[in-house]
Amino acid sequence: MTKEPQDNLMEKIVALCKRRGFIYPSFDIYGGLAGFYDYGPYGLALKKNIENLWWKQFVTDREDVFGVDTVEVTKKEVLEASGHVGGFADPMVTCEKCKKRFRADSLDQARDKQGKCPECGGKLGEPKQFNMMLKTHVGASEDDASVAYLRPETAQGIFTNFKNVVDSFHPKLSFGIAQIGKAFRNEIAPRDFLFRVRELEQMEVEYFVKEGEWKPAFEMWRKEIHSFITAIGIDGNKVSELEVAEADRAHYSKRTIDFEFEFPFGRKELYGLAYRTDYDLKNHATASGVDLSYMDEETKEKIVPHVIEPSLGVGRSFLAVLLSAYTEDEMNGEKRVFLKLKPALAPITVAVFPLLKNKPELVAKAREVFNLLRSTFRDTRYTVAFDDNGNIGKRYRRQDEIGTPFCVTVDFDTIEKPAQPDARLNDIVGQDSGRSGGDQSVTVRDRDTGKQERVTISDLTEKIKSVLS
Ligand code: ATP
User: What separation in Å is there between the alpha carbon of 260 and the centre of ligand 1?
Assistant: First the structure.
């Protein structure tokens, strides 16, 4: 089994995502729009599974984190106070000849020195700050007073609800407020598929602590991020931490660690962990005139909590999961592609097939097995699908490519014990169809090894459950 060399891995992943219904470029029929992607049925399932694991680990499995879901259109005063209106900018250079714009910090060093455009070789202008927020207007008039922004991070909706959560729940410090949601950044150079997009999703916690306790909280979230990376099957050997230098940190941060992943296009930020101090609450208190301090019941002191923020991009998680899972090998003399996804992430956990589509008795039995598995896994995160499209070889290839851990095939042995072995069926299945397994048994095929095992229907759910747990 070989991992794909890095050179054309991205192309293969992008093609697989489109072919198999994971990711489609947005507005494809109109020529697309750079930096925007839609999730198809399997992509949505994988994305939801990533988000659900995050929500479980970062919110519901803990007693000290509260979930919220806040609006995306953001009042301009909020983003003025947070510093985004003045400071959420990247340096940008424009080519004087072709007028294309580039992020000054991402231009190739050698070309940069010569001041040449990477596209046409024209002269590049001086870097200018470019604010990355997407602007809109709320209400009928399009004047300065009606300006609003699509939020550039989910965090601000949390800070503006800090007092609401404290008043409703009276949580003791330390506690966090979390949300998963969209953020919008008018990136100068969207690129590398889901890595740098203009409409993205973030999974963020703002964790409020007493100032003197920020260091252990920072360490705690650092460990949680690593354990999440492992839980979703991102290759840990490709992840490293970067202590971000002061000059490169966001305007609000006193310490930031970037969790970087070795993407095929370079080692780049996957997630961030930042110590935001009391910057946001203080600024919102000043700008809104509302007291956002916290009454410490033990010391009877009013304090403004400090904040640790683990910030994880959904799209970058998705891409790193796919890059870690993508595998090519050879099976029965044929090249095969499969996604070695963790079962908890796979869009489909078990696919049930009738060996032949045109045999009603096989289809009926396969439906029975499908219904049995579906009712067993109904209240779990696992999903069961019925698939009778194309021949059995094609179905295996399709399920391998979407990362389905188990395929269950109903064949003639399942419904009738044959008088004598039928070599023809072995040819159809591609391996020993397990004729000796007897009645009421099915073939269970493992995605990673391709091994097929005969299992009686009565043992099937326990067998699959034991492998999943
Ligand atoms: P970069 O330096 O790559 O632009 P950033 O430092 O601006 O990223 P943060 O503001 O720390 O990113 O955002 C937190 C997380 O949100 C990132 O670690 C990443 O997972 C995700 N993210 C940020 N910008 C984008 C984007 N344009 N496309 C996809 N995900 C993004």
Answer: 11
